[in-house]
Amino acid sequence: MLTLIGIAIVIIGFALRFNPLLVVTVAGLATGLAGHLSIQKILTTFGDAFVTNRYMSLFILTLPVIGLLERYGLKEQSQALIRKVKAATTGRILFLYLLIRELAAALGLTSLGGHAQMVRPLIAPMAEGAAETKFGALNDRVREKIKAHAAAVDNVGLFFGEDIFIAIGAILLMKGFFDQNGIHLEPLDMAVWGIPTAVCAFLIHGVRVILLDRKIERELAAAAQNNQQDSNIKEGV
Amino acid sequence: MWISLEYIYYVAGIFLAVVAFLTLKDKANPKRFSTALFWGLYAVTFLFGKVIPPMYMGILVILLVLIPGFKGVRGGAYDEATADQRLASSKKIRNKLFVPALMIPLITVIGAVWVKNVTIGGTPLLDPKNVTLVALGLAALLALLTAMFITKDRGIRALQESRRLVDAVSWASVLPQMLATLGAIFVASGVGKVVSDLVSSAIPVDNRFLVVAAYCIGMALFTMIMGNAFAAFPVITAGIGLPLLVHLHGGNPAILAAIGMFSGYCGTLMTPMAANFNIVPAALLDLPDKNAVIKAQVPTALLLLVVNIFLMYFMMF
Predict the structure, then answer these.
(1) Does A24 lie at the interface with B, CB-CB under 8 angstroms?
(2) Which of residues 93-132 of A touch B (CB under 8 A)?
(3) Shortest CA distance from B129: residue in chain A
(4) TM spans, by residue (chain B) (predicted)?
(5) B-chain residues within 8 Å CB-CB of A77?
(6) Helices (DSSP H) in chain B: which residue ranges?
(7) Which residues contact B96 (CB under 8 A, 6 or more apart)?
(8) Which of B38, B42, B85, B97 is the best substitution to test chain A (most A C-beta atoms within 10 A)?
């Protein structure tokens, strides 16, 4: 039971808003010690795992391109482009991106997207631009909500699309696990049985992003009303 | 192979070393020395990851983490273009600006799908085990050259601009790797077994629906703790899925696996531990609330988890 101390440290540390890096490191050290690992073994595991997982941070290689393009007006151009499409709304843009992201992932094209590659430079500015065209200036709250939803669409599309593709890591991992336990499974079987969930994920999240348009409208209207009231109070009405 | 993943790591290391150097010269950064040390140490992990023995790397990693832990990583000044300048240049360059941006995903896909099997002199061109990552690295370099050509600006400008983005992500860029490290410690200490023993001792095993619900919720919860459904799958499936659902109730293991993993992904959508999907993007999009992406995802994740439980219950037996 003592080995669960790491989980407790993570939950408490995150809740008390300590620096997550420190929380995670302390949790790792504590769990290792509670699990009777030697200091050398703990340090070696830290070093090994950190080096093995460097691939997770390779998105930084895309930042010079994105940074340079942003200096030369990539966001402004994305928004200008989306202003020309009269039918474009925040919800419809995110819906379309969800569809493309999930279908591409289902075909094994998981790298067709990503937060650094697609969401920051293109999808988020377009989603913001569409809302600006429709409603005029946005407040920070709405702007942040749109950006958060742009990032969320990328995740949902990727996660629930990729397991439909038979050669993806998750399917191979599951096959390996069952082989070890003496059960032979075909990758195709697992991929096919993932389809109902993949469709439901698309429907649930698709409806949510479409409804986002109405939510933005309501929130902006409420904010405008508040401002009106504030100024009325100031003017003594 | 001609181009291995290690070479891409060298490029990332050199990039981070330049960021460290530029940070050192940035007098507007109140913590420029400790910030430069942070990026410098991070560069070392990319440049010499395979050379430094793991134990010393472990010490280096802990030093690396202590710097932001004591608020030693800050942003500086970046000589940014004004909104008017950006608008003027976007009107001049127009849609050509999209070319380098779209090159990154497209070249990565081409590399991962078609160049995968290309060999030169019998040796594969790209690292066969890491085709996508190598392709991503090459795509970023080619896109950078194209962007420099289109904007007629120098490479150093791109590096200066990228420092603005790197500083926005700041220490969160290291968080995914540290969480993966914590996962490795959990595995080495046997945390998984303790958790699955707890869960299987708490549920009435004869009730098929409750076991299905316990398995799906267990996958989601354990994924939230580990930050990774891949880490949760073997633990929860060995603890609940195989003995109770497949062996005792005769469920179809392919359906168990497919929906079980998706239940784990519902957990991924709801946890700060999956930092690369949830926290890094929030930083990358300049969101002040680091949990904003998670908040946007929670309703979808919870609804889908319920859907998964029913799908598994009705399809599996």
Answers:
(1) yes
(2) 108-122, 124
(3) A169
(4) 7-24, 36-67, 97-115, 131-150, 171-192, 212-242, 294-314
(5) 90, 93-95, 97-98
(6) 5-24, 32-47, 54-69, 83-93, 98-113, 131-151, 155-169, 175-189, 191-202, 208-226, 229-236, 253-268, 275-284, 292-316
(7) B150
(8) B97
Would you list the domain boundaries of chain A?
2-56, 73-235
Residue owning tokens 């065209």 = A133
Range of the domain at B45: 1-75+85-173
Q: Which of B180, B285, B311 sits opposite A197 (nearest CB)?
A: B311
Look up the ipTM and state it. Answer: 0.88
Contact A48 B57 (CB under 8 A): yes
**Tens of each residue's pLDDT in chain A, 237 residues:** 788 888 889 888 888 888 889 999 999 999 999 989 999 999 999 999 999 989 888 889 999 999 999 999 998 999 898 888 888 999 999 999 999 999 988 887 887 889 998 999 999 999 999 999 989 889 999 999 999 999 999 999 999 998 887 767 778 778 888 887 888 888 888 888 999 999 999 999 999 999 999 999 999 999 888 888 777 766 665
Last residue of a domain, one of B144, B173, B202: B173
Alpha-helical (H) ranges within A16-166 are 20-34, 39-52, 63-71, 74-84, 90-106, 124-135, 140-162
Q: Judge: B307–A35 Cβ closer than 8 Å, yes or no.
A: no
| Residue A13 forms contact with B (CB below 8 Å) | no
- Which residue in B has a C-alpha nearest to residue A154's C-alpha? B277
User: Which chain B residues touch A107 with a CB distance below 8 Å?
Assistant: none
Q: Is residue B80 part of a domain?
A: no
Instruction: State the sign of the Cα–Cα–Cα–Cα dihedral A84, A88, A89, A90.
Output: negative
Q: Which of B11, B90, B105 sits opposite A117 (nearest CB)?
A: B105
Query: Does one domain contain both B202 and B228?
Result: yes
